Structure formats: structure tokens, C-alpha cells
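Training component of the fellowship. As part of building independent skills, the fellow (R.M.) carried out the full modelling exercise for a liganded target. The chosen ligand was adenosine-5'-triphosphate. The inputs are recorded below so that the supervisory panel can assess the work.
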Amino acid sequence: MPDQQKNTETVAPPKIEAHNIDLMRSESESLFHVNDFTVHGKGLVLIHGENGCGKSSLFNIISGVFAPDAKHLRFNENGRFNCDKSKPGYLFYPNFIFPGTVRENIVCGRKISNTQYQELETVLQLPPADKQVTIKPENLSLGEKQKIYLARTLLGNSSCILLDEPGSNLDEKTEHSLINYLLKLKEKKLILVISHNAYYDAVADKTYEIRKGMMYQVQSR
Ligand SMILES: Nc1ncnc2c1ncn2[C@@H]1O[C@H](COP(=O)(O)OP(=O)(O)OP(=O)(O)O)[C@@H](O)[C@H]1O
Ligand SMILES: [Mg+2]
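Fellow's submitted model of the complex:
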């Protein structure tokens, strides 16, 4: 099938639902209980919670990095977990760069148009596309690396995007620019964001909080 045709193929809208389950720290210890977590279609869903409460573990389950087995999930009475999505874009840690240009690090062999690349170049103020990235010594700052990870995650045609602390190491101007971009993107895609930053509250369609071993919805628009 020609690539152009592949890119315009309609993908079923993503749907993630969890009812009466626990995310597990180990087979016997719960990280937190989920009574009802249902997100689907498009929009921006924000996840809040203190350090160590299990936010990244939730994304590892949703993305498929963790198997939905007894080590990671406990199904209580009528408990269920369904994750109906194409392969999501996932901004995770620790992440990686490899020797090559900035553009190669972002595109990672995919077919990405110049227009798509240039849009993110502007939004994220990316380092020069032809800059050679080296590993030892690393010639990128933490913020520059974060921009590369973000651009890599945001490019592509996945209908679901998981962003774990997207603003880490970004300056305020870039984070605002990213939020404006997400505001447009959420009209087309389902975006789940983990953030401690209050900036995202204003653009979230749904917010969930994990507190004292429970996940619950705190606000809906
Ligand atoms: N690979 C792992 N093996 C064992 N325990 C882990 C692993 N990853 C995380 N944990 C533990 O699971 C708990 C939840 O970790 P998680 O990374 O999901 O928290 P978080 O809410 O994302 O925290 P933060 O805000 O600091 O990123 C922590 O107590 C952590 O020590
Ligand atoms: Mg985390």
C-alpha cells in the first residue's frame, strides 16, 4: 500500500477503561485502587499525584510496557481493564539519544513530512536539525534532550499520546508554546498528560488524581 494511503487510513478511536482494579507494586501490595477510569476518543486528560503514587506505572500499563498480569494488576469483583488503542506515542523515562543528527534522533526512520517537522521545530524551538549529537561527551543540555524526546513522541500518526512530565527541563516559553500546540492536537487525538504543573489544568478536559491509594476524577468540563 502506498505510504500516503497508509497515513490517511482511519484508525478506530482509542478507548481506555478500567473498573474496580488495583495497580500493584508487587503481587501482594496495591499501589492504588481504580474504581472507574474511562477515557476515549479525543481530548486532554490530566493525571495528578504525589511522587511515587504510581502515575508512570499507569502509563506503563496503558502503553503495554507492563503486561496486564498479576504482578501489575489485581482484578477485584467484576474488575476489568480494556485498552483499545493503536500503538500510542509514549514520552517515558529514562529516554535515549543516539549518535546521529538531531533530525535523525527525532524522525527515527519514520516517514515524516518537512511541514510536520518544521511545525514542531517552531513549537519546541528544537536544536538545529543537522546538529550532530554525540554521546560521550553529551553535547545536548537536559532541556534540548527533552525537546528531542517530545518531538519524537508527538510526530507520527498515533491516535493516542502519553506524555509523562512533558515540561521537564523546558523553559517557561517553550512549555507555554507546547501547551498551545496540545490545545490544537487534542481536537484530533487522545492525549494523557502526567504533570505537577498547574498550567495544564486550564486545558484539561478531564483531571484524575491519585491520592492515598485511590484514583478518582476531580474535575470535568
Ligand atoms: N521497575 C520497578 N520495579 C520496582 N518498583 C518500581 C519500579 N518502577 C517503579 N517502582 C515503584 O513503584 C512506585 C510507583 O512508581 P511510579 O514511577 O509509578 O511513581 P510516579 O507517581 O510516577 O512518581 P513520580 O512523580 O516521582 O514520577 C514507587 O514506589 C516505585 O518505587
Ligand atoms: Mg513518574
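The panel noted the following from the submitted structure. Residues 172-185 form the longest helix (14 residues). The pocket of magnesium ion (ligand 2) is lined by residues 55-56, 164 (CB under 6 Å).
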